[in-house]
Task: inverse folding
């Protein structure tokens, strides 16, 4: 089942001054259960593509369908609700809420979904256990290592039971051991729970484990390689 | 959760919180101090003037104030004497008979105001005895006079000399009398100094041919706040078709106007003060909003609605506002209390100039709870309004741009 479809997506920054075409007609389809890496040199449009797919930015041309919904047709508030229900985000800089504990960070999005307290707590604990942080649940981000924070971010992204997870350079700030650990967790979630992951990355360690590698060059899909047996 | 998030955010950057709370604290402190000194100075000034002679409230025969003549004297009925028993806020009733006369000695003549008083009651309110510069104070029914220093100087009189008074008494009666000078009194006000002559009440009544009559009853009250209940009570107790009841504001419109003009001037000063305060607080809010733009972008990205984020930030600032305002009240109390107990005292030319107008150059602070609360509330309202800025910021925020910043 297709979860993401982009058709002729164009995104232009500074259209009135010095226009920069960050995306120049991207056609892409992502199906359920994929473990896809979007790669390419700096400025190729990886992050912009993720932002457009995630409804954080709107394309200037083209269509973006997520789970069968035309997200470009949604209002700002509808998009916020849509993201909350259907998309999980993992950012390069973890972006946890510094004043909340690991458990509260994971609970946060579910709180925004108005889920019952008991359900929030149980799911947060289950997810933190799944990412190997059962003993760090009551720690604040400042008390966790970079790798641990990123695992909390993955748990947070999974909390609302999204259709897929968008991860923008998730390993960029991690050492080798933490990267391997994080990738193991995401691979396991992908295999066992069929969660779809889409990464933008430069990191060869991530690329090596991806089942599909989409290469962007100058805002266009240059290659799209599906590899068997990875992850 | 939003409240918890707001509360924890306050303590996340303690230095920022301290700066914001301190700017609110100092705002409350300055505004409270200014207001308490200004109000205290005016209260003191009004108390001085009112207690100097007029009293907070006076009762006259209807129409006396517009046409101040001895012919408007009225009998001092028992019901009037008993006012201090009937109305608890009235501490003392001071009966007076007042009119103008010519005072002379030898070849000198001068226009004076001859006032008949009850010496003990008069002293209780105006501290007349404390103003004796030479000689002694009057005793009940004594046939003697107290003269203001200016009068004594004009007529070349001193204690022990005799002053001759001539006037037109009640309903055209010839009024004439001579009285030994028992003492001289000094008034700060030049107006009073050059015209006041005091006799005891029965002696003045006899002089004016108005036995048993008075022209006014000055009422001594404990405090200004008692004026309103006293006026209400007097309108019930007295026949208002026969008597007029006036408070100090009716009798001293010039003083009221001076206070109004001064307050109007202070509006500008307060405006500037609040403007400085507002800019100080706004600076910290601006800094906080800018600093957290990235975080705001993330929160919107993960599904937080703008109104939820705006409400969280607004609650943070409101809590800071409450904290700062409360701390401001606590900090103001000892400062204002110090100047309430140890008033600012001016000396030199400024003090001399004030004393000429009958005012002591003393500026005590007003130590009343409502000043603290009002100023804290005003600063809090300013903070609450300024706290709307992050809401505008959040409303316009584009998450991608915020996270790229």
Result:
């Amino acid at each position: 089942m297709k979860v993401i479809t982009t058709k002729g997506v164009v995104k232009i920054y500074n259209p009135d001054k010095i226009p920069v075409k960050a995306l120049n007609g991207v056609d892409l389809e992502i199906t359920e259960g994929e473990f896809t890496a979007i790669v390419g040199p700096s400025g190729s449009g990886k992050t912009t593509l993720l932002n457009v797919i995630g409804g954080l930015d709107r394309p200037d041309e083209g269509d973006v369908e997520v789970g069968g919904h035309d997200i470009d047709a949604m209002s700002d508030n509808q998009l916020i609700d849509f993201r909350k229900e259907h998309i999980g985000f993992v950012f390069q800089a973890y972006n946890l809420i510094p004043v909340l504990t690991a458990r509260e960070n994971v609970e946060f999005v579910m709180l925004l979904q108005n889920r019952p307290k008991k359900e929030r707590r149980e799911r947060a604990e289950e997810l933190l256990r799944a990412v190997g942080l059962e003993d760090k649940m009551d720690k604040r981000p400042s008390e966790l290592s970079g790798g641990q924070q990123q695992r909390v971010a993955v748990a947070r992204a999974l909390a609302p039971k999204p259709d897929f997870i968008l991860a923008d350079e998730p390993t960029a700030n991690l050492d080798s051991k933490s990267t391997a650990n994080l990738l193991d967790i995401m691979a396991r979630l992908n295999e066992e729970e069929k969660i779809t992951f889409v990464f933008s990355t430069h990191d060869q360690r991530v690329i090596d484990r991806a089942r599909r590698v989409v290469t962007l060059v100058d805002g266009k899909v240059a290659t799209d390689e599906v590899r068997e047996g990875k992850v | 959760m939003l409240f918890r998030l707001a509360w924890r955010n306050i303590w996340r950057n303690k230095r920022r919180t301290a700066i914001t709370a301190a700017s609110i604290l100092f705002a409350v402190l300055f505004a409270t101090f200014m207001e308490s000194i200004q109000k205290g100075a005016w209260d003191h000034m009004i108390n001085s003037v009112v207690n100097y002679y007029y009293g907070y409230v006076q009762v006259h025969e209807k129409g006396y104030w517009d046409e101040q003549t001895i012919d408007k004297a009225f009998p001092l009925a028992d019901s009037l004497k008993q006012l201090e028993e009937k109305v608890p806020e009235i501490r003392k009733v001071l009966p007076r008979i007042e009119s103008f006369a010519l005072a002379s000695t030898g070849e000198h003549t001068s226009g004076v105001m001859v006032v008949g008083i009850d010496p003990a009651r008069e002293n209780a309110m105006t501290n007349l005895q404390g103003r004796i510069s030479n000689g002694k104070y009057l005793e009940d029914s004594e046939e003697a006079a107290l003269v203001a220093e200016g009068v004594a100087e004009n007529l070349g009189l001193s204690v022990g000399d005799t002053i001759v008074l001539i006037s037109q008494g009640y309903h055209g009666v010839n009024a004439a009398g001579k009285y030994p000078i028992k003492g001289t009194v000094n008034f700060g006000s030049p107006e009073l100094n050059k015209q006041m002559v005091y006799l005891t009440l029965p002696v003045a009544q006899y002089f004016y041919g108005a036995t048993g009559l008075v022209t006014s009853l000055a009422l001594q009250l404990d405090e200004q706040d008692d004026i309103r209940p006293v006026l209400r009570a007097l309108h019930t107790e007295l026949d208002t078709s026969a008597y007029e009841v006036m408070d100090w504001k009716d009798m001293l419109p010039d003083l009221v106007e001076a206070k109004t003009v001064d307050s109007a001037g202070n509006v500008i000063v307060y405006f500037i003060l609040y403007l400085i305060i507002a800019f100080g607080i706004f600076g910290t809010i601006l800094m906080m909003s800018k600093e957290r733009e990235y975080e705001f972008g993330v929160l919107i990205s993960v599904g937080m609605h703008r109104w939820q984020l705006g409400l969280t930030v607004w609650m943070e600032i409101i809590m800071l506002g409450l904290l700062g305002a409360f701390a401001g009240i606590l900090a103001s109390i000892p400062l204002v209390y110090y100047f309430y107990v140890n008033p600012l005292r001016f000396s030199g030319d400024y003090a001399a100039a004030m004393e000429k107008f009958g005012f002591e150059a003393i500026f005590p602070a007003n130590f009343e709870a409502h000043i603290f609360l009002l100023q804290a509330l005003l600063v809090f309202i300013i903070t609450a309004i300024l706290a709307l800025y992050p809401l505008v910021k959040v409303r316009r925020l584009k998450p991608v741009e915020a996270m790229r910043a």
Observations:
- The CA atoms of residues 186 and 228 of chain B lie 32 Å apart.
